[in-house]
Design goal:
methylenetetrahydrofolate reductase (NADH) activity, 295 residues, globular, binds flavin-adenine dinucleotide, 8 strands, 8-stranded parallel barrel, alpha/beta, TIM Barrel
Length: 295
């Protein structure tokens, strides 16, 4: 099923993101993670693609296929295009079709440090057009409530986002953020530009301080004072930090749902325990919202 059609059936969509293990690590752990996550009945699970196309022997396709064909949960395979030729992408698309994978999260990927790219794509909107021309896929794209790191002009970033939607993206997933007001402002900018595809809010629970520092340095998310206080207070107590991080994420999600946001995409960091605690905390809210009829 296409993700856009899940949004037609449900008032609120709740989904997970996982990443394939590093090439040297065995797949057994991720199989167990998926087993645990499937019990939480997400609407779909997306699987990331190695930076710069580094996912050797395409674990993204393998895991997306397992989620969809073994466990019967819809999946979305991330796909980056920087450094790839058009025929590289076509080969991957054929593989996805053969594996009955219906949804792709189409991305540019990060520019390599040496800034060289011998590929045929410069931006995600070109990949989106290419996918549209070569198959019947649901196409998701990334969006950035605080602007992408290479483009801090928020209005220009929305113009570029609109281009991805015009080229065929029918669903958006946001970069993580810790201040919901940033996301509400972003939704307003999208609405003013008539971007009317479903937009899911990307939520990342804090699991440890180092991880959050690294990720926010990479994406530039604002850290609210309340959030910094939690990190500083519990940084040397991993269990307390994890519990406070879960509570923070739950509070964010409850506020987003109460404000009418229709999709929550949980960056699980392959941690089923954290995903379970969050899902259990917001499950009754999502169930009750989904009982309301879509008008
Ligand atoms: P684009 O939409 O192409 O944008 C990249 C930059 O180019 C932006 O600054 C944009 O403003 C600018 N731009 C766009 N169009 C133009 C134009 N016409 N002219 C000039 N500038 C333009 N990375 C991975 O490697 N693997 C993953 O699995 C992965 N999953 C992700 C999932 C989500 C939900 C998100 C938010 C990010 C993910 N990323 C992943 C990271 C992503 O690859 C990087 O953020 C990357 O730098 C940008 O990708 P994009 O698809 O948003 O690029």
């Amino acid at each position: 099923m296409f993700i856009k059609d899940i949004f037609k059936e449900k008032k609120v969509v709740f989904s997970f993101e996982i990443f394939p293990p590093k090439t040297t690590t065995s797949l057994d752990t991720i199989y167990k993670t998926i087993e645990d996550l499937k019990d939480l009945k997400p609407d779909f699970i997306s699987v990331t693609y190695g930076a710069g196309g580094s996912t050797i022997d395409n674990k993204t396709t393998l895991l997306s296929s397992l989620i969809k064909n073994k466990y019967g949960i819809e999946s979305a395979a991330h796909l980056t295009c920087i450094g790839s030729s058009k025929s590289d992408i076509e080969t991957i698309l054929e593989d996805l079709k053969k594996n009955n994978i219906k949804n792709i999260l189409a991305l540019r990927g990060d520019i390599p440090e040496d800034k060289t790219s011998n590929g045929e794509f410069s931006y995600a909107y070109e990949l989106i057009s290419h996918i549209r021309e070569h198959g019947d896929f649901g196409i998701s794209a990334a969006c950035y409530p605080e602007g992408h790191l290479e483009c801090r002009d928020l209005d220009l970033d929305i113009v570029r986002l609109k281009q991805k939607v015009e080229n065929g993206a029918d669903h958006l997933v946001s970069q993580l953020f810790f201040n919901n007001n940033v996301f509400y402002d972003f939704l307003e900018r999208c609405s003013k530009k008539s971007i009317d595809v479903p937009i899911e809010a990307g939520i990342m629970p804090v699991i440890n301080k180092k991880q959050i520092e690294r990720i926010t340095a990479l994406c530039g998310a604002e850290l609210p004072e309340k959030f910094i206080k939690i990190m500083n207070k519990y940084e040397h107590n991993p269990v307390a930090l994890r519990d406070a991080g879960i509570a923070y994420a739950v509070e964010q999600i409850v506020d987003l749902l109460s404000s009418g946001v229709r999709g929550i995409h949980l960056y699980t960091m392959n941690n089923p325990l954290v995903a379970r605690r969050i899902t259990e905390s917001v499950g009754s809210i999502i169930t009750s919202l989904n009982k309301d009829i879509i008008v």
